[in-house]
Amino acid sequence: MDFAHKNKVYITRKIPEPGPSILKKYFQTNMNSGVDVLEREKLFENVRGVDALICMLGDKIDSQVMDAAGHNLKVISCYSVGHDHVDIYEATKRKIAVTNTPNVLANTTADLTFSLILTAARNIVNADRYVRYGNWKFGWTPDLFLGYDVHGSTLGIIGLGEIGTLVAKRARGFDMEVIYYSKTRKHKIESELDITYVSLEELLQRSDFVSIHVSLNKDSFHMIDESKIKLMKKTAFIINTSRGKVINEQHLISALKDKVIAGAALDVYEIEPISKSNPLTKMSQTILLPHIGSATFRTRSKMAEVSANNIVNFFNRKGIVHKIN
Ligand code: DGY
Questions:
Q1: Which DSSP string do the residues of 227-271 spell out, in sequence order?
Q2: Would residue 272 show up in a list of annotated catalytic residues for this protein?
Q3: Strand order through the sheet with 8-11
Q4: Three-state DSSP class for 46?
Q5: Which of 59, 61, 171, 299 has its CA 20 to 30 A from that of 259?
Q6: Looking at ligand 1, which atom is closest to the CA of residue 241?
Q7: CB 249 within 8 A of CB 116
Q8: Cα–Cα distance measured from residue 212 to residue 223, given in angstroms and rounded to the nearest whole number
Q9: Does the active-site annotation cover 85?
Q10: DSSP-derived 3-state class of residue 58
Q11: 10 Å Cβ neighbour count for 285?
């Protein structure tokens, strides 16, 4: 390759192998060995003069970062499928390619989503704490931790992309009725999985579990607010493994306090990490995870491989580049 060792790549936080090794073969590669999001000034300093950048959630890649990098910057490779942390408009204006990691994390995120459905329905977190903290005094009890059946219940999927579809597939295996709402209707998937398209309002009214799988953009921002939550059943749960800002968190907190719905199982928040003082952390009807939808050894490694290859293939003009813009 004629670009060998000429171009510089910066990786904003430590990613697993084979990502770094793939890049080191072809580029001068510099990786922040820490796991924390870099201070802005430090980020500006570290991206200076790079030709490509691997960034991830929590990094804010805006015009200031692009300015700091300078004219050499040609590719911003997201170590994620979501790309709401990158100013795509600004990158496109500057002819900088932005890439992501589709196809490799959907099953893993669908697994986590389904585990949240089961955990919420059957009170698993509270029951575990009950045993762990020595509160289980009377053995088997007829009404101890009664929950809701997952089989035979209705799952409403908002957003039938890759992840939403795989959640639907799992749900059908559990004999759930699946209804979905998506910007575009997916007739083929409907007949393959025997699932039904409905309006967002109908979905919220009929579902026992509402699971969100849309990407964050101006249309989906606060798509679930007080008026939408009010349509849900009192016994329903909301599950979010997409982006926190799709739900108006303050409205959700009020709805949970007022018992408008039964509970929420969340992997994502409006502000991450959420603070310990966030009312969500004080409620027994919430399950809160630290944004780990794609967090398995195999998937994170695959994401590293894809994000590195996006850069190699971009400069090599060969192979697949998962370009967003
Ligand atoms: C993504 O890829 O967008 C997830 O949220 C993190 O893996």
A1: HHHTTS-TT-EEEE-S-GGGB-HHHHHHHHHTTSSSEEEES--SS
A2: yes
A3: 28-31, 8-11, 52-55, 75-78, 97-99
A4: helix
A5: 171
A6: 5
A7: no
A8: 10
A9: no
A10: coil
A11: 17
Entry pTM? 0.95
Q: What is the CA radius of gyration of the chain?
A: 22
Q: Report the nearest-CA residue for atom 6 of ligand 1.
A: 80
Q: Mean pLDDT, consecutive 10-residue segments, the chain of 325 residues?
A: 73 97 96 92 97 97 98 98 96 98 97 98 98 97 97 98 97 98 97 98 98 97 98 98 98 98 98 97 98 98 98 95 97
Residue written as tokens 């931790």?
145
Reduce the DSSP state of residue 323 to 3 states and report it. strand
Choosing from 55, 57, 100, 303 the residue with most ligand 1 atoms within 8 A of its CB, the one to mutate for a pocket test is 57
Q: Is the distance from the beta carbon of residue 80 to the nearest atom of ligand 1 less than 6 Å?
A: yes
| Binding site membership of 294 for ligand 1 (Cβ less than 6 Å) | yes
Q: Sheet harboring 177-181: ordered strands across?
A: 196-197, 177-181, 154-158, 209-212, 237-240, 263-266, 286-288
Structure tokens, 98: 């932005």
Cα–Cα distance for residue pair 210/41, rounded to 1 Å: 41
Which of the following is catalytic: 291, 300, 305, 322?
A: 291
The greatest distance separating any two alpha carbons of the chain, rounded to the nearest whole angstrom, comes to 73
Are the beta carbons of 178 and 184 closer than 8 angstroms? Answer: no
Asked about 94 being catalytic, the answer comes back as: no
Atom of ligand 1 nearest to the CA of 80: 2
Amino acid 22 reads I
